[in-house]
Structure formats: structure tokens, C-alpha cells
Amino acid sequence: MTPVTKPISPFEGQKPGTSGLRKKTRVFMQPGYVEAFVQSIFNAIGGCAGKTFVIGGDGRYFNAEAIQTILRMAAASGAARAIVGQGGLLSTPAASNLIRVRGADGGLILSASHNPGGIDEDFGLKYNISNGGPAPEGVTAAIFDQTKTLREYYTLDTDDLDLSAIGETTLGGMTVEIVDPVTDYAALMQTLFDFDAIRALIADGFTLRFDAMHAVTGPYAKTIIEGMLGAPEGTVLNGVPSVDFGKGHPDPNPIWAKPLVDMVMSSDGPDFAAASDGDGDRNMILGKGVYVTPSDSLAVLAANAPLAPGYARGLAGVARSMPTSRAADRVADKLGIGAYETPTGWKFFGNLLDAGKATLCGEESAGTGSDHVREKDGLWAVLLWLNILAKRKMSVKDILLDHWQTYGRDYYSRHDYEAVDSAVAEGIMGDLKALADGPLPDGIQKIDSFSYTDPVDGSVSHNQGMRVFFDDGARAVMRLSGTGTEGATIRVYLERYEVPDGDLTNETQDALAPIAAAVDELTGLKERSGRTAPDVMT
Ligand code: G16
After folding, report:
1. Rounded to the nearest whole angstrom, what is the distance from the C-alpha of residue 253 to the centroid of ligand 1?
2. Is ligand 1 within 6 A of the CB of residue 68?
3. How far apart are CA 66 and CA 161, in angstroms?
């Protein structure tokens, strides 16, 4: 079958953000749009000849069509093999795992993560490299450069492939291997965790719920939690993936997973509950009567990970994104292991994991993971929590309290102002940056712009968020989201430390109200964005 060369004009704005290219679905559906971005990826990585790619996505609207386009283009450019999740489905961590276990050259993952799906919602596409992790900035910059000058792309004139049956077929000279999306991932989880202990905990009457939010983790959770771990049928809620996530917002936080939060807060709620997002890399952890912030979750997991067989040897180090609370640093300090602070974006953890400097990584944006893959992993976090609960035989609430009594508590919350006019948002950030050099208002010790030097390859990333350090040790961070698709989202991260014998059980927003007020006074945030309150508080 002869490849066809088609002319194309560059599209504006195909710049990968925090996690690949995310746009409105209709933007991706423009004729040639996917083709332009995919050809730019292939050009940036030095072509496809003889290469193996893993391809799959979270099943959202346009997932299936985009995969057919990518398959034709990969075949036309001489790729040797495409490994595709059955029905085009692969969770992001499962795709990362497949890239690694199959020694693939890279992967194309179709997802806009926690953003809603549908023709009028969001779509996304990102490239992962051979270590299974998101392409680092050097690669995404090369892709963006290609998008600006692209003149042609290569494809085949063929019908769509049937992706529903497991097995091998060919497309031009390329082998297309359709695999069960769950099998390899479930096998990996079994090597990391004490499934017998978790099974015994559940058999003993421990109750749990997992909300897959109509997204990709449904089949994974059903196989592992209900199948392998013996939880009763019905433990997994909203477990059938749908193209529009049941018209919901597949973001596992107290706003978008409110029914689950209400359930654990009720007197007859389950002992444990968790949720995952569109593509299965985020998680939310809840216990009876308690919500665990992602920052606290990372710290608790770091302190207790050796209870799971996969981490029994201990941790090499812990890494967190800069806006994530410093709770994990306190654990690392006590354990005498490395603590790393990276910019927002899982891609920044890749080098630390590859170099064996960090074993666990986490972000305030509901992401936790380890060196088992090179993406954050929602179900992994749930299983590690279950393993810890099975061993410690304490409630989630008691584990959290015990943690705070040992390390102190980092009260933490993120306030989001969504769809703000981009010029206004840039203005607010620019003015805050200008304040850094001037005389500082009372109560503020330092304001700076976060820069990161990668300790492994020495690469430097500037402008990764503004930090405001207060005299009393509290901290506020402000940055613009790199994953939104409409205007700008201003994220304000608030944090205050309380010592182990201090007041550990305050209401979070009350504990942080003075810092939120100080940020507003400093930046004029509410007035300038035209808001009276944040759109989302997590
Ligand atoms: C992505 C990145 C994360 C990042 C998050 C939020 O997650 O992989 O590293 O923390 O976006 O980024 P931002 O604050 O720029 O919106 P996901 O789950 O959306 O792929």
C-alpha cells in the first residue's frame, strides 16, 4: 500500500501545555488538525521507521476517530508495530506501563484528563517517550517548532480498522496488535501490593467504594477491586466508560465527586472511598468522615510505603511539584532521604525516577505515583492506601491524625478562578512579579518566581509560578494553569504549618482564611477577575 503525501497549512497554537495539547474537541475535529500535530510529533522524534508505538486513550468523544488517523499516519511513515488498547481504551498509567514492558519507542495518549468530554467539551493528545513518561520540555518544544512550519503529512487511503477484537492485524507494512487494556497493568499491581492482606481486610467486613466517574478506570477497578480482591459487586460505581463521562466532569475532587464525599460523610458510609479521573492518573482518597488532601496523601504514602511488598526496601527519595504542600518533605527529612521540588507537570519527575533519585512522586492536583511507571497512577494510589490500611488496621481518619501528631499538619487548599480573561490574568501575575523586587508589604518575607534546575540533566525551567513567603512560615503560590481550554485559570495555593502538638483539627478554609485575604490584598485578585469567590476550592 503506497503512502499518500498530503499538503497542509500550519495551525496556530499547537503548543503542548502542562500535559500535551488540550483544546476544545471541535478544534481537534477541524480537517487536518490531528494530522498536523501527529506529523509534527513524528518529525520531531526523527521519524517512525521501524518504531513501535503504544496508542490508546480515555474513550472520550473523538477518541476512536483520532486513533484511526494516527494508525494510518504511523503506518504510512514506516512504523513497525502499533500496540492499541482494545476499543481504543488505555488508561494513562496503563499506557505508560505498556510502553515500558513492551520496550516501545513511545506512545500517543488521547485524553484531556479530568476535563469533560463531548463534542462541545475537551480533547487532548500527548506524546510519551520510551521510558513511558510524558515528553520532556526539549521534545515538546521540538514538536511545537515543527507545527509552525509543517507543509505536508503522510497517510494511507484505507478503511478504519476494527479495534474491538484482541489479536494482530496489518495496516500497510505495520502490525497492529490489539491488547486487553487491563491485563498487563493488573499483573504489575499484583507484584507491588499484598493482595492477600487486602483481600482478607475486605473479607473481614471492611467496606469501600471506588467511583470511576464513567471514565477509563471502570474496567481496571472492576477486574482488580471486585475481581482479584473480592470486593462485592457494586463496589465500583459508574464503572462503564462513556464518551461524555455520563455528562459529568471526571475530576476526582470534593466538587465534582460530591456524591461520593457525601456518602463517606454520612453515618452509614463506607470505611474507605476513592475516585479517579478521565484517564485514570488522578485519585481522590476519602475515609469515613474524612477527605485526605493530595498533599497529605503523598506524605502518608511516603511514611508507610514499606508496608507494601513493592516498597519494602524503602524509598530512595520523594518528589513533589512546587505548589504541593511541604508535608512530604517532613517525612523525607525524618527518613533521611532526598526531597525534590519540581515545577508542575509529571514530565519533570521522569529524570528523577529514571536516575533512581525518587521512588514516590506527588502533586497537589490529585496525582500520586512511583517508579513503577512514569505517569501518576490513580488506582495504584488506591491500592497502596488499601495495603496500608490492611497492615495498620486503623481507620483513614486515625492514620491521618497519627501522621499529623508525628509530623505536624500542613493546612492546605487550592483556590481556582476559572475562565478569567487572559489579559487580566497575565496582568495580575505580571504585577505580582514586579512586587518581588520592591519593598515588601508588612508580614511578607519574600516573593519570588520559581525556577527549576533539573539535578539530572541540568536543564533549567523558568517562570514556574510566583511564591509568596509570609513571616510566620505560611506560603501562597500563584500560577496560571497549563491545562485549561478557555481563557485563563488562576490557581492560588495556600499553605500554613501547624506543629504536632498544635491545633490539628481546624476547618481547613478557616485555618487558611488570613492567607487568602493577604493574597487578595496583595494582588487585587477578586476585584480584577470580577469574582467574589473562587470557582473551585480543593
Ligand atoms: C496535568 C499534569 C500534572 C499537573 C496538572 C495540573 O495533570 O500532568 O502534572 O499537576 O495537569 O496542571 P495545571 O495546574 O497546569 O492545570 P492531568 O491529570 O490533567 O494530566
Report:
1. 14
2. no
3. 12
The candidate with the shortest Cα–Cα distance to 38, out of 74, 91, 79, is 74
By CB neighbour count within 10 A (0-12 exposed, 13-18 middle, 19+ buried), where does 39 fall? buried
DSSP string, 58-100: ---TTHHHHHHHHHHHHHHTT-SEEEEEEEEE--HHHHHHHHH
Buried b vs exposed e over 343-379: b needs ≥16 C-beta within 10 Å? bbbbbbbbbbbeeebbbbbbbbbbbbbbbbbbbbbbb
Does ligand 1 lie within 6 Å of residue 306's CB atom?
A: no
Whether residue 363 has its Cβ less than 6 Å from ligand 1 = yes
> Environment class of residue 507 by beta-carbon count within 10 Å: exposed (0-12), middle (13-18) or buried (19+)?
exposed
Q: What is the reported pLDDT for 176?
A: 98
pLDDT band at 483 (very low <50, low <70, confident <90, very high): confident
Topology (CATH) of 185-407: Alpha-D-Glucose-1,6-Bisphosphate; Chain A, domain 3 (3.40.120)
Binning pLDDT at 50, 70 and 90, where does residue 105 land? very high
Residue 110 pLDDT: 98
For the segment 140-179, what is each residue's pLDDT rounded down to a tens digit? 999 999 999 999 999 999 999 999 999 999 999 999 999 9
Residue of 483, 489, 535, 536 best suited for mutating to test ligand 1, as the one with most atoms within 8 Å of CB: 483
Active site residues: 113
Does ligand 1 have an atom closer than 6 angstroms to the CB of 346?
Answer: yes
Domain span(s) for CATH 3.40.120.10 in the chain: 4-180, 185-407
Q: CATH second-level architecture of 4-180?
A: 3-Layer(aba) Sandwich (3.40)
The whole-number average pLDDT for the span 197-217 is 97
Residue 484 has a pLDDT of 76
Query: Pocket of ligand 1, candidates 19, 276, 376: which has the most ligand atoms within 8 Å of its Cβ, to mutate?
Result: 19
The DSSP symbol for 307 reads G
What is the reported pLDDT for 2?
86
- CATH architecture of the domain 409-537 equals 2-Layer Sandwich (3.30)
- State which ligand 1 atom lies nearest to the alpha carbon of 491: 14
